[in-house]
Amino acid sequence: MPKITPIAAFNDNYIWLIEANGRAVCVDPGDAEPVSAYLHQHNLQLAQIWITHHHHDHTGGLAALKAAYPDCIVYGNSDIAGATVAAGEGVQIEFAGMHAGVWHTPGHTDQHISYLLHTSSGLHVFCGDTLFSAGCGRVFTGTVEQLFASLQRYNSLPQDTLFYPAHEYTAANLRFAAHIEPDNTDIQTALAQAAHTPTLPVTLAHERRINPFLRTAEAAVYRRVGGLTGRQPADETAVFADLRMLKNHF
Ligand SMILES: [Zn+2]
Fold first, then answer.
1. Tens of pLDDT along 48-98?
2. Maximum CA pair distance of the chain?
3. Does residue 187 sit in helix, strand or coil?
4. How far is CA 91 from CA 4, 14, 20, 37, in A?
5. So which residues are the catalytic ones?
6. How far, in Å, is the centroid of ligand 1 from the Cα of 108?
7. The domain 3-248: what is its CATH number?
8. pLDDT at position 14
9. Is 206 part of any known ligand binding site?
10. Where do the domains of the chain lie?
11. What is the pLDDT of residues 103-130, one digit of tens each?
């Protein structure tokens, strides 16, 4: 089992660092400085960088880290200028005897990808800005239908799967979740615990109980969304789209 550590960056970003045998993988280095400091402090060689999508707070540190670690392999989809390996759907990655797979998970951006790392302790998903605890990313260059499909795909994974989102948005997301499901005691409990950060990673089982964007099939969510918008959603995709719109204005 590798050590997986969140390195805080900017106001609320996490740069996840996976380390094994003196080598490290860094996920979405928006800023090189805190990553370099951690690598030096723990005497680690940066072997790989995994980029989920092109936004600057996920890629801003790429050039400096590549300059400092010229042998480092950079995985990213075709829209990532600094990538050394094009990582689209189905690409397989090896690190320290472990395997990771790539999923195309569009919605937040149309080229967004996720990294699924298999370890002896289970599955670890680096989901960038697609899933947050109790929430999901905003739609930028993808579509809300794509985002719904990407979250449904995550929801097909084993319930003990761990998710490693790139932002600490949990408390704000839970306040919206409580607005959607005022009687959900799991959301109230999670909100009380969200004062202690990092709140991440989170299991899929936990998200299924508290994340409205994974609860679009729940009758209470359907009714509440209909009540808030004044129209009954036609199907689950419509519930999801309305939730995303309501959250944008919450
Ligand atoms: Zn983003």
1. 999 999 999 999 999 999 999 999 999 999 999 999 999 999 999 999 999
2. 57
3. helix
4. 22, 24, 21, 30
5. 53, 55, 57-58, 108, 129, 167
6. 7
7. 3.60.15.10
8. 98
9. no
10. 3-248
11. 999 999 999 999 999 999 999 999 999 9
